[in-house]
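Pipeline run #58 for the internal structure catalog. This entry was flagged by the ingest filter as a single-chain record with no existing model, so it goes straight to prediction. Upstream metadata was stripped on purpose; only the residue string is passed forward. Reviewer on rotation: M.T. Logging verbosity set to normal.
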Amino acid sequence: MSDRDRELVVTAQAAAAGAYAPYSGFRVGAVVVADDGRSFTGVNVENAAFGSTMCAEANAMASAVTAGVREIEVVAVACLDGGECYPCGNCRQMMRELSVARIVVQDGAGGVRSHTLDELLPHAFGPESLGG
């Protein structure tokens, strides 16, 4: 794996230290790199009403969108309290909407893995699926 991917995972791990995870104890951090090179971080924010919980990846992508980003080059995800840390289905769908090219994740052995979105979300639903 590239040094850049490892740096991104380290940045995501540092962000995870700020996660709010009183229920699961599973702290997740994410960093998004926009197509223009800007970076945005996010953490998971849990809620007693579990459906209101926000994922780190979604928070980082929302920060990027707020700043005007519409295409994301890479999303890196890492957790401090467990093994592999892959994005959930909702986050993968959000990544599809924002044309994420690559997803970098921390694996269970302390390594780094890189995937395309097609690998993690085959046969994705996108704007072209709406017809018209």
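catalog note: The helical segments are 3-16, 56-66, 89-97, 117-120.
catalog note: The first strand starts at residue 28 and ends at 34.
status: ready for reviewer M.T.
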